[in-house]
Amino acid sequence: MGNSKGVFTVELAMVLLVLSGFFAMQVNYMIAVAKKGALDRAAFSAVTLVSERRQFFDDEGQMCGINGNDASKCASLVSDIEAIVAAGLARSMASFDAGALVVVVEEYIPAPPAASYAVRSSGNVDGCGFASINNSAMDDLSPLTSKARKLPVYQVSLCYRTDFNLIGVAQGDPFNIVASSISYARF
């Protein structure tokens, strides 16, 4: 009779260990989903600002100026977008670290005679796995305006490195949460 109490205690400890492991994985997943949602909203807001530059700021619509010759304009746009995104994420995430944020802004203009592509980033993009819009398929996806011109395509991609990954913490690797959003220019 005394042995059955010891067996029950061991079985209970094993079951509680498994249940606590599932609980920890569920908490990890919920935090990752919440951060992913915040990044998705920030990427959508940022790409909307980039694509509406002509309407909001009386800009000619090219991220790096005509023919991509204005490097200061590119750097200024990316730093402005990064500041806006960081401010928004700081309000929505309790423990937001701006140093862990990576911002990539891309512009693809399918204008004849040749398409132009510009990309600018802030932060270290290693391990983020961003998909680029620099390909010929964008020519087919870009809608035509009433003047039979193809619209420029913009993409803002965000990557946030976080250590709250129970498996990654054990290995010492950060967990990257990635979000991207695409928009067309408004003319």
Give the SSE layout:
Elements: H1 2-51, H2 53-57, H3 71-92, E1 101-109, E2 116-122, H4 137-141, E3 153-162, H5 166-171, E4 175-184
Antiparallel strand pairs: 1-2, 1-3, 3-4
Explain what you see.
The chain is built from 5 helices and 4 strands; from the N terminus they run H-H-H-E-E-H-E-H-E. The chain is elongated, with a radius of gyration of 23 Å. The longest helix is centred in the N-terminal third of the chain and has 50 residues, at 2-51. The protein has a 4-stranded antiparallel sheet with strand order 2-1-3-4. The chain has 187 residues and is an alpha+beta fold. Helices cover 47% and strands 19% of the residues. The mean pLDDT is 79. It has one domain (2-184). Helix 1 runs antiparallel to helix 3. A hairpin with a 6-residue loop joins strand 1 (101-109) and strand 2. It comes from Ferrimonas sediminum. This is Tight adherence protein F. InterPro entries: TadF. The chain crosses the membrane at residues 12-31. Keywords: Membrane, Transmembrane, Transmembrane helix.
Q: What general outline do the C-alpha atoms trace? A: elongated
Record field, number of beta strands: 4
Largest sheet: 4 strands, antiparallel
Mean model confidence by pLDDT: 79
Keywords: Membrane, Transmembrane, Transmembrane helix
Pfam families: TadF
Organism: Ferrimonas sediminum
InterPro entries: TadF (IPR031582)
Which tags fit this structure?
187 residues; four-stranded antiparallel sheet; single chain; 19% strand; alpha+beta; 47% helix
